[in-house]
Amino acid sequence: MKKILYLLIAALLLGIGTASAAPQKKKTRAKAPVARTAVAPANFSGTFTNSYSDGIGGVCTHLLTVAFDEAAGTCTGMHTNESGVERAFHGTLQGGKLVCIYDEDGDEFATMSLIDANTIKLEGFTGTFKRGTAADVTPAYSGDSGAAYVDPAFEQIRKK
User: Fold this and answer.
1) Among 46, 91, 135, 151, which residue has the least CB neighbours within 10 Å?
2) Per residue, what are the HEC states of the chain?
3) Distance (Å, rounded) from C-alpha 99 to C-alpha 68?
4) Parallel, antiparallel, or unpaired for β 129-131 and 46-53?
């Protein structure tokens, strides 16, 4: 009886050892790296918009117009924020990115980089700016700028 028990334990150990052995590696083909197409700096020129939710049911939109001088490596432009406030900026091309500064006070506005021919990314802004037209932009809040905005949900609670 002991021999049968020992043989049974040995068979179980052999079975467990075989099952837990390292599986053989499958041979897979290496994927070729995806080549990113070069985008000409001239594609910085144009009108771009960035829209996102304001968190209370509205949409905020920023408008960006850029005029890029490829020969000089500089740009001028206008940034319109979600409230409709316009500010002029200028910038220089540095390492494939436009470093932009507001004209009126010299504060750094943003560093722009091209993602593709119709999309730019501004460091410090959520999302990307897509090529569009000025007709696409409407301010998120079009009321009197001196009056405080009141959330409609708060008005409903106040009435109850």
Assistant:
1) 135
2) CHHHHHHHHHHHHHHHHHHCCCCCCCCCCCCCCCCCCCCCHHHHCEEEEEEEECCCCCEEEEEEEEEEECCCCEEEEEEECCCCCEEEEEEEEECCEEEEEECCCCCEEEEEEEEECCEEEECCCCCCEEECCHHHCCCCCCCCCCCCCCCHHHHHHHHC
3) 12
4) antiparallel
Radius of gyration of the chain (CA): 30
Determine the Cα–Cα distance for residues 73 and 69; give it in Å rounded to an integer. 6
* Joined tokens for residue 87: 């500010």
Residue whose pair of structure tokens reads 């041979």 in the numeric block: 27
d(CA 5, CA 1): 6
pTM given for the model: 0.58
Mean pLDDT, consecutive 10-residue segments, the chain of 160 residues?
67 60 59 53 85 81 90 92 90 91 90 90 87 61 51 68
Among positive and negative, which fits the CA dihedral 70, 72, 75, 76?
negative
